Amino acid sequence: MTCGLRSALTGRLNPAIADWAGRRVWIVGASSGIGAALAQALLDAGAHVAVSARRLDALEQVVAGRKAALAVDFDATDPAAWPSAFERVVAGLGGIDLVVLGAARYEPAHSWDFDIAKVEASFDLNVVSVYRALALVVPHLLAQGHGGIALVGSIAAYTGLPRAMIYGATKAALRNLAESLYFELEPRGLSVYLISPGFVATPMSSVNDFPMPGLLTPPQAAAHIIEGLERGRFEIRFPRGFAGAVKWVSRLPERLRFWLLHKATGM
Ligand SMILES: NC(=O)c1ccc[n+]([C@@H]2O[C@H](COP(=O)([O-])OP(=O)(O)OC[C@H]3O[C@@H](n4cnc5c(N)ncnc54)[C@H](OP(=O)(O)O)[C@@H]3O)[C@@H](O)[C@H]2O)c1
Fold first, then answer.
1. Measured between alpha carbons, how far is 61 from 92 in angstroms, rounded to an integer?
2. Residue bearing the CA closest to ligand 1, atom 46
3. Quick check: is 165 in a domain?
4. How does pLDDT run across 151-206, given as a tens digit for each residue?
5. 114: domain range?
6. How many domains, the chain?
7. In Å, how far from its chain's centre is CA 225?
8. Using a 6 Å cutoff on CB, does residue 75 contact ligand 1?
9. What is the pTM of this model?
10. Does the beta carbon of 239 lie inside 6 Å of ligand 1?
């Protein structure tokens, strides 16, 4: 086996992160849930963290009493708000080493009863706002020659699922986008991550009216994300058992996959 192939098969996809002390992290979608827990865990580990979302009061609670933190409130669906938010973060942290893009909305819907306004709003926040971030962050990271970009996807990206016709499609778009980014940016010295959570008990998932297999708490999700970043994974998927099972199902032939998913979801 050639050296290049061996390292492609066994090497890390991103460099390991040994130490968070002083690392400058911007988390968009950090006023609650996974983003808030990740911010707190990274602050505990010594990182300098800027938290963003629309609700300033909630952001301030997340970083209350933390010296190395900054709350930058803005609406990620407002194109005009991104440049000033980015400048506030760069000025406040003195630069950015890692951006985590997790602001999203979840609109369960059936294909025979959906609201096009919710489709547009979901794609605008979950997908288009990520491009708004990339337009600012990628040139910045390329100019400094290092840094990372993490997109928060979902295991709902792996396969079509009942009532996921809006949300699942937005997350599938991010999955493809993360791979395109990795292809282009890893050879230019940047790290790219795709975070694929299973079910996590947050305000977003609280609308689910079914038992959520493998449900994690936000701090548990944050611990998985930090471990994946530290290990230099590309995809950070959790919890391993449930998320791994969904990934496995997604690789089955369509006939078998649809049959199994009908059985498993009862829909
Ligand atoms: N919970 C799960 O089971 C689960 C599973 C898979 C993937 N995920 C993904 O994990 C990420 C975090 O979700 P979560 O479960 O932690 O939900 P969450 O607690 O509802 O967090 C969503 C975050 O997005 C922010 N946000 C919403 N609209 C925004 C806007 N227009 N501009 C700026 N920020 C906005 C919210 O803050 P404001 O309301 O203050 O703006 C909040 O901080 C999402 O990408 C979600 O799709 C979650």
1. 18
2. 104
3. yes
4. 999 999 999 999 999 999 999 999 999 999 999 999 999 999 999 999 999 999 99
5. 17-265
6. 1
7. 9
8. yes
9. 0.97
10. no
